[in-house]
Amino acid sequence: MSDNQHSTDLTTPGASQEVFADPGMPEHKHRRADHEPAADKRAELQVVVLFVISILGTIGSLIAYFAFRPDGTTDGTRFSTLTLGLGMAFALLGIGLAAVHWAKTLMSDTEVSEERHAQRSPDEVREVAVQKLQDGVKDSGIGRRGVLKGAALSALALFPLTIAVPLVSSVGNDWNVGKFRHTRWEKGMRLATDPTGRPIKAADVTIGSVFHVIPDVSEEERTSHEWITEKAKAVVLLIRLDPRDIESDQSPKGQTWSHEGIVAFSKICTHVGCPVALYEQQTHHLLCPCHQSTFDVANGAKVVFGPAHRPLPQLPITVDDEGYLVAQDDFDQPVGPSYWERLK
Q: Which InterPro entries does the entry link to (predicted)?
């Protein structure tokens, strides 16, 4: 060990312990805005611009909400969602960046340390603390920065409109949940592949295969504005199992709802409505990717794991004279999540 090095044994009882002096607070580094009026004014202007961006984002989201309403098509819904989301993003991002930039450039950043003391300070100490808070408000410059104060208050006051206006305007919408009790499926309607609309023959479905299915409707209906809503309720997952593996096909009156091991279930999770489309062939389980609800398609798509409370509704199927798969009727129960008119 060199002459200018030493060690202190802190493990041996009675050993001397080296005491370090309190290094104190590091030297405070002043920002340019603290001593340059031009830099201070520039920082204030930058914060104002960020708040103005938030205000413009709020106005833009309101314009987008009313000007670009969904027209029933996929592209229309996508564009409406995109414009509304961008407006809300700029509205919230402007407020966040303005607050950060304000704190880093304009508010007081002087370091303060205090000795630990009892939880309740004496009255005179509390008065000093209150005075410091008041000094902090004064240091922030909010009282003498009228433009900045106006921009901040305007941005904070307007932003809630991005949420409140769509929410309030939806009060007059159709809240009839009974429409989820029935879908486009009806007796004799063929099952078709999604999105091509090609009817499916039972002979084309091999054991272990999975088909994404929609009702076989006319081309005119598939291109209509109403189709996207009807399709959303009627989407089906078609799977062929070994008939010996099927424990139940949910037939309440004893009729067979599957055809030679082919079963069809709604793709809409009964938890919150996510698309259930992850099939594990070895276990015959369907997994919802949103919250991991798992359904056993060999046993009537009953829930075996996760937060869902109800099995997936089953579409009763058979074949027609030409060998095409057709629906025997609509789903056996309402599709989608449980709602207030149901017990679960």
A: QcrA_N, Rieske_2Fe-2S, Rieske_2Fe-2S_sf, Rieske_Fe-S_prot, Rieske_Fe-S_prot_C
288 by Cβ neighbours in 10 Å (0-12 / 13-18 / 19+) ranks as buried
Structural Rg of the chain based on CA atoms: 33
- HSE of 241 in the Cβ direction (CA atoms, 13 Å)? 26
Instruction: Judge contact between 330 and 344, C-beta under 8 A.
Output: no
Cα of first residue to Cα of last residue in the chain, in angstroms, is 76
Q: What is the pLDDT of residues 320-334, one digit of tens each?
A: 999 999 999 998 888
d(CA 51, CA 46) in angstroms, rounded, equals 9
Tokens of 216: 């076989």
**Nearest-angstrom CA–CA distance, 26 and 309:** 59
Residue type, 140: S
Give the pLDDT mean for 57-82.
Answer: 84
Rounded to an integer, the average pLDDT of 238-247 is: 90
User: pTM for this one?
Assistant: 0.56
Closest to 197 measured CA to CA, from 228, 226, 218: 218
